Amino acid sequence: MVRENSNMSFSLQGMNSYVVRKVVSEYWLTNIYPKEIAQAHRSGDFHIHDLDFLGAYTYFGKEIILTKISNELLLTSFEQLYELIAEKEVVLSEKDEAYAKYPKELLVLDKNGWTRVLRVVRKRKNRPMLFVKNRGGRSVIVTDNHPMITENGEKEAKDVIVDRDRTFTVDLSSLLEKEDLWRIQYIDLLREIKKHGWISKRDRLFFNGEPLDDLRDEEGDGYVHTIGFISKRKIKLTRKFGYFIGFTLAEGYLSYNEKEPRCVSLTQKDKKLLLRANEGLIENGMSGCLIKREDRFELQVKNPFLRFLFEKVFKIKPGARNKTLPINILSYNKDFVEGLIAGILDGDGSIDTSRTTLSLRISSRSLLEQMALLMQLLGFIPRDRNIEGEGSIREFNGKKIVQNYPIYGLSFRKTTIGISSEKYIEAELSTKAWHDETRSAWHKIINIAWVGI
Q1: With 426 labelled, which of 35, 305, 338, 366 sits at a CA distance of 20 to 30 A?
Q2: pLDDT tens per residue across span 19-29
Q3: What are the backbone angles phi and psi of residue 349, rounded to the nearest 5°?
Q4: Each residue of 210-240: pLDDT tens digit?
C-alpha cells in the first residue's frame, strides 16, 4: 500500500509520485548512465543520488576541482577539466545542449580521498544559481536544486537554512599529504613545444642556432628562439618569475593575437613594481619594454615563448573573468608559488582598516578559489567574502558604468608566514585567530544569495 504520509491509509497522489519516481530512475539507468555504472548501482556496489529527479543540477563551471588525469595532479575549473579530457565528446541532448565525455583515467579528490570518475557532463545553464557560504570561510556556487550534504542530511541548495544547517570544511593539507607537491623546478620549453605543438605556422624555431626540425640530439641546455625572439630552454620557476606571473594575472592585459603589438601589458603609476615584475622575465632570457605614458608607465612584452607558456602550458585564457592559475601549480616549486601569490597581492590586494587583514577583489571566480586553496596549503585560513557589485552603477569621468557581473572577494589575516608582497609586508601582524578556523569540521551556513551569472 502506498501512503502519502503515516496518517493516511491510502494516497493516490503518493502512488502517482512513487510510480513516476521509479520510471524516472529506470530512465536514468537505462538511457543515460553507462551499463557498468547502472549495473554497479543495481548490485549495490555504490549508490547514485537523486535518480528519481529528472531535472539536472550542476556546479557553476567556474568552480574549482582537484583532479588527476593520467596520474598528473591538476587544479582546474570544471570548464577547464572538461576541455582537458581527451576522450571524444558525446551528445546527450541537442535540445538541452547537454554533452558528455567518458574519461578513462580521471580521479577527483573529495573529503574521503580520490574517487574515479567515469563521466563528465557540460550543459547550458537553465536554472538559477545560488552562492552558499559557511562560517569556515568556504563557499560554492551551484544550481538551486543541487543536493548539499549538510550535517543533518542531504538538502537542495534552495532549502538550506542560514544559521541552522552546517556544511563540511575539509583539511586540504591532510588530504594531500601523500602527494608529491612543489617538486618541479623548471619547465623544459623544448619538450613542451614537442608535446603541444608550436603556436604559429609562420615562425621557424631554432635551438642554439640549429633549426629545430633538423635536431637529432635534443639534450643539453641553451636557448630556444625564432629569428626575432629568444628564451632559455629551461624556464626556471623562481620566486621572481612567479611574481611576474602573479602580477600579470592581477593587473595584466593578455592577448594571444599575433597581430597585437604585445602579448602582455602591465600598467602602473609607479614603475617600481613593473621593474620588479620584469626581473622574472630577465631570469629566463626574456624582457619587457618600459614605456612612459602621460600619467603612467606601461611594461609591454611581445615574446611568443611567453605566450606559449601562458596559453599551452599554464592553460590561462585572456579576459579578466577567465583568468586562472597554471593548471600544474601544485607541482611547481614552492618559491614560484609564493612569488605568484605576492604578485597577485601587490596587483589586486588591499589592506583592510584593521591593518592585520588583507583582501582580494577580482572578477574571476576560478582564480579566487584557486588562490584560496593554495593559501590553505601554505598555512593560511582564507575566507571568501560575500559577492559584491552585481548590478551596481558608478560614475567614472562623467560616464555611468554598470557592473554586469559579480566581484568575488577573499580575505586572510597576516601571520608569521612570510610572503614577499609589499602590501603583505606593510600589513601588521595578527595576534588573534578568527572564529571557526578549524579544518575538517562542520561549519554553520552564514550566507545564501542568488547569483545572476
Answers
A1: 366
A2: 655 665 675 66
A3: -85, 165
A4: 998 888 767 789 999 999 999 999 999 999 9
Give the chain's mean pLDDT.
90
Backbone angles phi, psi at 335, to 5 degrees: -65, -40
71: pLDDT confidence band, cut at 50, 70 and 90? very high
Q: In the 8-state DSSP scheme, what is residue 43? A: T
Identity at 89, one-letter amino acid code: E
Q: For position 411, which CATH number holds? A: 2.170.16.10
Whole-Å CA distances, 16 to 7, 22, 29, 30, 31:
18, 10, 20, 21, 22
Between CA 251 and CA 127, with CA 137 as vertex, the angle to 5 degrees is: 80
Per the structure, the complete domain to which residue 390 belongs is given by 57-172+345-452
The whole-angstrom separation of Cα 129 and Cα 121 is: 17
Cell 619587457 found at:
288
Domain presence at residue 156: yes
The partner residues of 166 in beta bridges, in order of sequence, read 444
Stated pTM of the model: 0.87
Q: Look at residues 219, 281, 222 and name the one whose alpha carbon lies nearest to residue 248.
A: 281
Secondary element (H or E) of residue 83: helix 78-84
